[in-house]
Amino acid sequence: RKSYKVTVLPGDGIGPEIIGVAVDVLRLVGSQEGINFEFTEKLVGGAAIDELGTPLPEDTLTTCQQSDAVLLAAIGGYKWDKNPRDMKPETGLLGLRAGLGVFANLRPAVVLPQLVDSSTLKREVAEGVDIMVVRELTGGLYFGQPRGFRQESNGERTGYNTMVYSTSEIDRIARVGFETARKRRGKLCSVDKANVLEVSQLWRERVTAMSSEYPDVELSHMYVDNAAMQLIRNPKQFDTIVTGNIFGDIISDEASMLTGSIGMLPSASIGESGPGLYEPIHGSAPDIAGQDKANPLAQILSAAMLLRYALGEENAAQRIEAAVMGALDKGFRTGDIMSPGMEYVGCKKMGDIVLETL
Amino acid sequence: RKSYKVTVLPGDGIGPEIIGVAVDVLRLVGSQEGINFEFTEKLVGGAAIDELGTPLPEDTLTTCQQSDAVLLAAIGGYKWDKNPRDMKPETGLLGLRAGLGVFANLRPAVVLPQLVDSSTLKREVAEGVDIMVVRELTGGLYFGQPRGFRQESNGERTGYNTMVYSTSEIDRIARVGFETARKRRGKLCSVDKANVLEVSQLWRERVTAMSSEYPDVELSHMYVDNAAMQLIRNPKQFDTIVTGNIFGDIISDEASMLTGSIGMLPSASIGESGPGLYEPIHGSAPDIAGQDKANPLAQILSAAMLLRYALGEENAAQRIEAAVMGALDKGFRTGDIMSPGMEYVGCKKMGDIVLETL
Ligand SMILES: CC(C)[C@H](C(=O)O)[C@@H](O)C(=O)O
Ligand SMILES: CC(C)[C@H](C(=O)O)[C@@H](O)C(=O)O
After folding, report:
1. What does the record note on quaternary structure (chains A, B) (predicted)?
2. I need a surface site. Which of A140, A313, B27, B227 has the fewest CB within 10 A?
3. Cis omega (within 30 of 0) on the bond before A340?
4. From the candidates A163, A164, A230, which should be mutated to test the interface with B, based on the most B CB atoms within 10 A?
5. CA distance B123 to B278
């Protein structure tokens, strides 16, 4: 009987509710597939600030590093928004990404046939959208040095950050982009701002150079402003997108909202080796926390991604995905994806239905 | 009889076609309103590179600086995409913005009742959208120092840019944001990434501080990734948005594409004093250049903005806007906004119809 160590990070807001459901789902599918999970729960984000005075306790990072995979819910909330940077929940998440070396963030934006009407896009535009955004996650503007505040001689203050990429950082994320595109529909669009930024010029140069190794992948380049438009004009033109950290933050969130059901979208963050980080793309939704209203499906699908990418347990992953589709096919909907004629359920109930369907 | 000096910059691609139409419109409305225009045409962008070996000839900048307003069409094209930075059309545009000190870029995104079906959004989501994006235009990541390429000791190369704002840069654009919101529906949303970036923390701090001077304006803050989502989920929640240069580039293009008719959208770039820059938000569309297919209406509406903001000629501005609406009401459409039952016209013909309607 295989056994895996999974660190569980409930985080903030709706985190504890949805991750509880996902852990139950993992347990059940484990018993069906002969997999044993050793779950260790740790604090991160606002919860860790409140209990331990830091958004990323050392013990949390060490435990994550020593596990086979990390399942995270979501962090953040209004409560900590005014904290200084080292006491923000977000800083804990960024430290976790850096500490695990998970430089590649895979964010699918898929319009499910059952939920096509959740999209604010016209049906004919939304139907069939299936995009994978590969976002660089441990470099660029988020981590670039120098950064900070400065007092100018004229009495003014300035705030500054640095957008920087090295050739090796670009190469390793570009490779994930090409490999991902190759396993999908063979189209890779690299998004940058090379008409203005030097960092983007280097990005474009390296991505272009690598394309000779992938003759089966059709590479295109798009400026980030144009990409933001094209995603709305005709999202079906995209297969795989590869881009830097801040552009990926914006573009992947835009792409996910095209589906109209971000409560359904999981993500995977992976490195060269070591445990990956699996989390829903949605936030911690503090306004509905503790009310049993959250949609747990993105968290459950994140557990499926964990099984597939971190543990190579493809069968178990597919079982979970089928159970989620089954729950939708039976007509059950949480509030965020509710539509006329469907049956409204809360977080806990949706979890039970997925468990039953499993 | 009043007389104004207007510098006309046709630029590249469809630029010459559409700006010719807009100049005719200005001439006619001038004769109706007793305004004399002294037009001086100059080269900028790719056209200037080809003829004079630089994207922003000194003579062009000086002429612009000495005029009352500048009407620009669009610059750029595949042809110059591989040029080094100082020989890119975009560098000419950035130099023009900096040289004119036009730090505030006003970009309306309005869904016209006649064109609501052009949007890829569902009718009930698109109908009534009326957003003004106030984008900082002469600072931030576009102009921040240091920038460039570096050879690291380990043999790697890096490319880097700096996102930097000073308090005075933030204050002056925030003020434009508040003033703009005050003249509209009184809601200002400031977009940043203050949960990660120091430059955004300073931004948020200064914008918040200024809000006490504008008790009649309701200020909110939104992270840029969330803004990219909310624009798609429910664009009607926005009135005025104020943001930095690169976020504004992305967010304003996204907002404009929500309308489905970017061929209709003008923009104004203004400074503390001196001539402003008026241009359509769409690009130079090299693929349809010279084919009489371009939509000249955004350029014509840019001329109306020029009359309003640069010259204070409100009557003339309204005449032009009414004529454009009139042309649409009569059912005439260029290819980009064509829909069943409407009459297809080219660029020249659309111009003639606006002139007649005037
Ligand atoms: C919470 C925040 C720091 C984070 C980011 O910007 O990366 C989030 O928006 C995300 O995309 O995972
Ligand atoms: C052409 C380019 C340099 C420019 C920009 O990024 O500012 C354009 O996209 C715009 O928004 O006016």
Report:
1. Homodimer.
2. B27
3. no
4. A163
5. 30
Which domains occur in chain A, in start order?
A: 1-111+261-358 (3.40.718.10), 130-258 (3.40.718.10)
The reported pTM is 0.96
**Contact (CB, 8 A) for B238 and B108:** no
Q: Does residue B329 contact residue B335 with C-beta atoms inside 8 Å?
A: no
CB A81 within 8 A of CB A112: no
Contact B190, B220 (CB under 8 A): yes
- Asked if A257's CB is within 8 angstroms of B229's CB, the reply is yes
**Residue to test with chain B: of A123, A161, A207, A247, most B Cβ within 10 A:** A161
Q: Which amino acid is at A178?
A: F
**Contacts (Cβ under 8 Å, ≥6 apart) of A291:** none
Q: Residue B215: is the preceding peptide bond cis (ω within 30°)?
A: no
Question: Which residues in B lie closer than 8 A to residue A195 (C-beta atoms)?
Answer: 76, 81, 88, 90
Q: What is the average per-residue pLDDT within B178-195?
A: 97
Contact B61, B95 (CB under 8 A): yes
Q: List pLDDT tens digits, range A126-167.
A: 999 999 999 999 999 999 999 999 999 898 999 999 999 999
Nearest alpha carbon to residue A268 among A163, A132, A146, A87: A132
User: For A169-223, how does the pLDDT look when each residue is reduced to its tens digit (9 = 90+)?
Assistant: 999 999 999 999 999 999 999 999 999 999 999 999 999 999 999 999 999 999 9
Q: Are B310 and B276 in contact (CB under 8 A)?
A: yes
**What does R_g of chain B's alpha carbons equal in angstroms?**
20
pLDDT digits (tens, 9 = 90+) for B50-80: 999 999 999 999 999 999 999 999 999 999 9
Helix (H, G, I), strand (E, B) or coil at B282: coil
Which residue has tokens 């000190």? B101
pLDDT, tens digit, for every residue of A217-259?
999 999 999 999 999 999 999 999 999 999 999 999 999 999 9
What's the CA gap between A319 and A32, in Å, rounded? Answer: 10
- CA gap A137, B297 in Å, rounded: 41
In which residue are the tokens 């003249």 written? B183
pLDDT at A82 over 90: no
B295 contacts B346 by C-beta, under 8 angstroms? no
Reported as a single tens digit per residue, the pLDDT across B165-178 is: 999 999 999 999 99
Between the CA of A249 and the centroid of ligand 1 the distance, in Å, is 7
Give the other-Cβ count within 10 Å of A346's Cβ: 17
Selection from B316, B300, B309 nearest residue B270 by Cα: B309
Residues A198/B159, Cβ–Cβ less than 8 Å: yes
- Cα–Cα distance, B172 to A232 (Å, whole number): 32
Helix (H, G, I), strand (E, B) or coil at A104: strand
Instruction: Give the whole-angstrom CA distance, residue A192 versus residue B196.
Output: 20
